[in-house]
């Protein structure tokens, strides 16, 4: 499965796997795809360094990339305490009440949420980049808008391609103007932050909007047939995030959450502002329902919402509180019904792609294949 | 573009075009596809007879079908007056206020809305069928749930295949149990009534759920590349509705509405209950905004909402009140940027399909094509 972009990156198959787990990212790269490690949770540069060392040792010289979260708008001189002070007491009480209703215990003394707003701040992403450029990464992706011009320049100086996620053609055009190299068109059905244009419509729109820049299709892709569809729509590769969550290598720290993912249908996700303040697709839970309830207080804008719920989300995960337990995931969760290795999942993608090509050729009357 | 289903129906290309306009349906059939005439507006059997006569004369013996609206749940002995009486006065006042705010004139004396709730009632659909089975239709589609068992039997006795729309795999399984022959998997991005699972995810789910029944993919399809994607996902054909709205043969009765469709982007639609009480994708307008406003009275359930707004919608259309003027249409409206003949639109679909097959074969390394 070769496109101009996959050849440029030196990978066998134009399959890009986004994941917060180094073991998953490395396995995707080893399987012949392109593993992209999500860096948002690395607030300490040394932790990122440790995991990139590990990635480097486990990718056998094959290429991989890093995904950072660098907000388009710079927030100057604002501390976490400043943001904390902007959260209304009514919202804090709503968090306490909702957790109490479900009997969610407190975190142990001295144990704070792993998630901090600082992970979303530009300086943290810049510290991550200082680490990352010491490694032979081939791609730097940004999940929130175009990266700043100096970051794009710095990446290019290191021979690193820059990708950015877009939920609309206009959004993609702004990325192109900012000098990025690859647009990831993220459809409505995707897990995480996403707009409301579905991949079937969004992919070709973005391809046309930024031509000749290469586009990766994201959202609704968890099979080789869906990869074939994305490539038929003009993408130069597929960007998959959700699929890896139920692989053996994924470290969700919760059997209950894995079980929920394996059991969920495609209709069991919701695009909600509950997690970060911006619409992000995730498992629908009583937690998302509480935030989406028109009779509730509603969510706060990013980054307030993320800070408001950080400890609560940690508590729900730590104590595996079933009705509240969720995670960002796309509509393809409905087909994530077995645990398996990344390698098995990857090989099934390439087999499914070949089946789809056979099928299309039969339909087109090109039966030699 | 041949599938098992297209061969069974005797059509050249597995492209199904749904439209309320006989001239469009006939042109789709003549071009080598399968035209499906939407019957909901034919409350008088003679009108349907007249248009089916015309279709018959203009399809040169090639196959076509009919789409009726037959609610799954039978409403016994309920008259339009009964339903009228269930509409709260506050909602009627909201309609009057919203129209007055935009200076929408009344309909002329004696001129009522063309849309009547009766078009949605089972007896009307049965009257339509009495007419339709006198014509050599090859397909009967139902837009609301599975048709009643006796209707399925009657269709089969006439050698007519029965299709039903589904927005989820479970919904599709119920159709299969009801003995229908074809499932139309209608994705989130589609115009008209639709669920929230996008085509990229829905199509293969429905294909697997009802296997070996054939599935048509609907929603987000307006190009040959999108048809190739749908077929890669396992569909035996594509079902297109929106694309034909800006063809010369479509009779929208409003240049302003055509202009709005030509100018709209993929982000200019909304899935709203404003039109019928069930979520239906349509152009987003100040009219849909008013109904979707959390501070407004909100919509009523089907069939009350449709009856409540019928005259208002007629007035908005007749007087072409720009900010309120809308129509059901899918997210592909963003690519409907030129007026052309059905034949030109159709030929572009088949050309785009061949381009997509070429592309997929290059990517798969099957370069002989």
Notable characteristics:
8-stranded parallel beta barrel, 11 strands, homodimer, globular, 369 residues, TIM Barrel
Describe this structure in words.
The structure is a homodimer. Chain A starts with a helix and ends in a 6-residue tail after the last helix. The first copy, chain A, has 14 helices and 11 strands. Chain A has an 8-stranded parallel barrel with strand order 1-2-3-4-5-6-8-9, surrounded by 6 helices. Chain A has a 3-stranded antiparallel beta sheet with strand order 7-11-10, with helices on one face. In chain A, α10 packs across α14 (about 340-365). Chain A has helices at about 5-10, 20-30, 45-55, 80-85, 90-100, 120-130, 150-155, 170-175, 200-210, 225-230, 255-265, 285-290, 305-320, 340-365; strands spanning about 15-20, 35-40, 65-70, 140, 160-165, 180-185, 190-195, 215-220, 235-240, 270, 280-285. The interface between A and B is large, with 54 and 54 residues.
Number of helices of chain A: 14
Return the CATH topology of the largest domain in chain A: TIM Barrel
Structural class of chain A: alpha/beta
Oligomeric state of this protein:
homodimer
| CATH C-level of the largest domain in chain A | Alpha Beta
Major sheet size, sense and barrel closure of chain A: 8 strands, parallel, barrel
How much of the sequence of chain A is in beta strands? 5-15%
Which sequence of SSEs, written as H and E, runs from N to C of chain A?
Answer: HEHEHEHHHEHEHEEHEHEHEEHHH
- Count of β-strands of chain A: 11
Which geometry of chain A do the CA atoms define? Answer: globular
Which architecture of the largest domain in chain A would the CATH scheme give at its second level?
Alpha-Beta Barrel
Compute the CA-based radius of gyration of chain A: 20 Å
Share of helix among residues of chain A?
A: 40-55%
GO molecular function (chains A, B): oxidoreductase activity
InterPro entries (chains A, B): Aldolase_TIM, NMO
Protein name (chains A, B): NAD(P)H-dependent flavin oxidoreductase
Keywords (chains A, B): Flavoprotein, FMN, Oxidoreductase
